[in-house]
Amino acid sequence: TTEKVPSLGYRLCFNCCPCCVVGCSSESARRSWRQFLCSFSTIFALLQVVFLFLTIQLGGGTVSFEENPMIGPHYHALDPVGAKNAAKILVNNEWWRLLTGMMLHVGWLHLAGNLLVQLRMGCVLEMLWGHGAWLAVYITSGIYANLLSCVAHPNQLGAGSSGALCGLVGAWLSFILITWNQTLPSDIAERNMQTFTIAMSIVIILASSFMPMMDIAAHGGGVAMGIGIAMVIFGWRLQHLATRWATLCAGVVLVGALVGVTTYMFVTQ
Known about the structure:
mainly alpha
């Protein structure tokens, strides 16, 4: 019997959003939907949609394309609702902006681009790592990305979850390298392809960060923190004792150095 090959449309739909093609008839399909809808990736996505809607309403509506090509409110409307503002963080001790800034977006196009990554890659990694590990990587990377952005761009408002998403990419690379020798022989080709894809993604992220309206500090900082925090979280998976402790210690040192040096540069600038 010849096995039926899925159509191009089916494969594209599955690669973009697997839940759209699994249906709801079977118990496994319903379980997949529950996992998707109850994931932090989806919950944060819904909150980010709500926050952008409220920001637009509180900011007087959507401005012209010339003022905001991302189709959203005026940039000044982001500041009262918690955008990254280096001056207010430093002078008024509004450190909470490092967290709230990653929940805000400058427009619908900005939000849509990030949600495509968050709801596809983010959900897959959350199922793979577990909710706690995913949340730790996402939040820590996002906060650090905003902190480094304060140092690199102290006179600019900042908003967006791209730093946190870059942290997931960096953590994914660490996770694959840590579990490199734990791959089944049948999965080696897929592991190698994932490693290549992640490495290319990091290159593209950093290269595209030089484009207008992009924040290379937030993107690069997110990747670096993701790599470091993943070494701390997943280092225990290493089977060789010396390598395990070396990885855990290196991760702690990397995370500590990133936070310590960046915080010092920020408060003394």
